[in-house]
Amino acid sequence: MAFAGLVLGVSGLANAGILAYDFEFQLDGETYLKGSFTAEDLNFDHFFRDEELISLSFWNDTLALHNYRFNPTVDDNFNFDIMANAFLLGGNSFGDEGQRWNRRGGPGLGFGAGSRCATISINAMDQGCGATPATTLTQIVSVDSVPEPSTLAIFALGLMGFASRRFKQQS
């Protein structure tokens, strides 16, 4: 029983931690938006939400606008499915399951992907629905490997602990 607990505990530890992603949204084969983010799945539900986001930066090369800092206290939504490596593209009203990054709250570049369309905004002014519906956006997401403790090393330490405990009991 203890051995099964050790194996399950080790496998859980190997998946914990901070993950960094690069992403690109494409529309009709052309780059629509690029960016990167770092997040940590604090509640282990396999989703990144606003409160788990550490950093987000995104840009559009055509519009020459870069670097927006995500602010979950304004009107932003960030929803990412870790298992599918995909952004959720549902509604984009505050609190919905879509994306809403700096769309109404501040200067510079904004992005929204909701149930009706995906749009880029500049200084809180929408530039039209580039993708109708938002699911016509193609997502390219890659995760950067983050060094984690070796599962085998942790497992070996556990076995050494069991062995030392057994030898203590025999003495």
TrEMBL record:
It comes from the Bacteria. Pfam families: PEP-CTERM. Residues 145-166 form the Ice-binding protein C-terminal domain. Keywords: Signal. Residues 1-16 form the signal peptide. The keyword Transcription does not apply. It comes from Rheinheimera riviphila. InterPro entries: Ice-binding_C. Transmembrane segments: none annotated. The keyword Signal applies. This is PEP-CTERM sorting domain-containing protein.
